[in-house]
Task: structure prediction
Amino acid sequence: MNKKQVKGHYEEAKGAVKEATGKLTGNEELELKGKIQKEAGKIQAGVGDVQQEIKDNI
Result:
C-alpha cells in the first residue's frame, strides 16, 4: 500500500464522518462537504491503486 492509497482512505473516512455528522445535526452544508471529501478520497485512493498496480507489474 502506498502513501496515496493511505491518504485517500483517510480522507474518505473523514468525509464519511462529516457526512454523518451533517445528517445527524441537519447541517446540509456539512453533509455536502463530507460527501465531496469522501468522493475525493475515493479518487485519490484509486490513483494510488493504479500506481501500485503499475509498480507491481514492472
